[in-house]
């Protein structure tokens, strides 16, 4: 019994430093704000509306990294290829369809692209928005390209 108790104590003492680091040195939460592009390329950055510098829309890559939805009407094939449920081939097909038939009015219009069915659309929907679904003053609106 004493041996088991000593082993348990040793295990707890081994884990204690990691637990203490998590509690004591846990970095505070960052600023809570909607991501917004700031600054002029090539020295642009993603910040908040209160940050200094000229405003700009987020690129598709920045929106993906920030967790913001990607605008179907402005995204490149490279931007769309990173969306769950869309492959590089389907992303290229979305861009080709947009150039041929015009902008998407809603994310549901994505179903008009061959190869995108209800399951694939449901998987991609949280990561996408169409121009008509976002407000024009939305700081999460995207600029073209990445």
Automatic annotation (TrEMBL):
Domain of life per record: Bacteria
Keyword field contains Chloroplast: no
Signal peptide: 1-20
Alphabetical keyword list: Signal
Chain positions covered by the region annotation Disordered: 30-60
InterPro entries membership: Endo/Exo/Phosphatase_dom_1, RuvA_2-like
Matching PANTHER family: ENDONUCLEASE/EXONUCLEASE/PHOSPHATASE FAMILY DOMAIN-CONTAINING PROTEIN 1, ENDONUCLEASE_EXONUCLEASE_PHOSPHATASE FAMILY DOMAIN-CONTAINING PROTEIN 1
Protein's recorded name: Helix-hairpin-helix domain-containing protein
Organism name: Anaeromyxobacter paludicola
């Amino acid at each position: 019994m004493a041996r088991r108790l000593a082993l348990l104590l040793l295990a707890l003492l081994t884990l204690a430093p990691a637990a203490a680091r998590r509690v004591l040195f846990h970095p505070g939460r960052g600023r809570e704000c909607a991501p917004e592009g700031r600054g002029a390329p090539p020295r642009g950055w993603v910040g908040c509306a209160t940050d200094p510098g000229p405003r700009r829309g987020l690129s598709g890559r920045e929106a993906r990294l920030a967790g913001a939805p990607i605008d179907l009407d402005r995204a490149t094939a490279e931007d769309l290829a990173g969306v769950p449920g869309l492959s590089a081939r389907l992303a290229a097909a979305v861009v080709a369809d947009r150039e041929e038939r015009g902008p998407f009015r809603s994310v549901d219009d994505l179903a008009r692209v061959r190869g995108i069915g209800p399951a694939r659309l449901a998987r991609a929907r949280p990561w996408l928005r169409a121009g008509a679904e976002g407000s024009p003053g939305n700081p999460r609106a995207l600029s073209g390209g990445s």
